[in-house]
Amino acid sequence: MTAQAYASGASASSAAAPTRTLGARDYKTLALSALGGTLEFYDFVIYVFFATVLGALFFPADMPDWLRQLQTFGIFAAGYLARPLGGIVIAHFGDKFGRKRMFSLSIFLMAAPTLVIGLLPTYASIGVAAPLLLLAMRVLQGAAIGGEMPGAWVFVAEHVPARRYGFGVGTLTSGITGGILLGSLVAVAINRHYSTAEVAEFAWRIPFILGGVFGLVSVYLRRFLHETPVFRELADRRNVARELPLKTVLREHRGASVFVALLTWVLSAAIVVVVLYTPTYLQKVHHVPATLALEANAVATLMLTLGCILVGWATDRIGTRAVMLIGWGGLFVTTYLFYTSLPGAPASLVWHYGLVGFFVGTIATVPIAGVRAFPAAVRFTGLSFAYNMSYAIFGGLTPVILTLWLEKDPMAPAHYVGLLAVLGFVLGLLPLAARGHAMRGAPAGSTMAQ
How does the average pLDDT of the chain come out, rounded? Predict the structure, then answer.
């Protein structure tokens, strides 16, 4: 990438992009995109909230508990390992034929496997076929989410005004993390309303069946979205990627790919460890009751959702770099505050979990910096490739690594997240954290300064 392509200065950015504010269509796009992201991510993560129950139902009863848990999280990891293939294929056609079509397809591909999981027979009924079918459905879910996440970020980033770019991407990210919150709330409701025996007998199926229905509703809602102005401009100028977009990314945008991949590693540590893994960790290591663990997790996820919006708003005002340094530094401090105080009193557990959850909201800077790291013609493919490859490796293997690490050190989650928060802080000092390609119709040398 040439130096001109990253020339700094707010004047270049403002000259290249419209100065309009958010209009009715922008709010509609944000609302429908965020709602769809909420429902789709709910489908993907609801598995982890019932990991203990699924482990007991889909593996032999005489299997050691640690091995059952390891295999259960191994199936969870399979969903992440499938993300790159789904993401690359969907992104390829998104750069070739349009963002909207793939944006709608990805959520349909998520809804069907989620519904099937809710209807699967257990190990007691069909033996080893049960975990194999569960694995197959997780792979399909992973392929779908691989296209959804980058697609949603690109779709919204190319729609909103440049001056509200951070707010738009942050709000969408809050909608996606809202899927985790919805999953947490549903898990709390199921565990409160049904006894442990009832959950194991039939109630665990309810969240997955609901997820399948939610997904189909979202497919319908996305019919009302419009193609992004950026892709329409590319098509009008016949500037749509002519060669395989991934080939262009690997040849011309390796630095941006590494930058986004490392940022994604930080994001995966924050989400997978703090939000998805910790409820099971609290129950297994610190013997926190399931209901309290899930309620505290719901508070943390709510704070995460609010944090994403605030982070997006702040990047439009003080810049992405400043927000990354403050946010990742705050995550380092609050991570150790939370994990060293466990189990603590119920009130302190909820308070500390909520505080670290708020700083996990710094993950909104990942798509804010990542989307603009690539030019429009290969933006979807570049972001999808870097993001999904990194998440597949680090996000998918993290629960397995932590399960083994915890055998030796109960503070393993804190050390892992703390180290990655330091990496996020360092990445915030790099040029790509503050500068990148303009979102739309600008000369090749213009930038988007944040």
Answer: 79
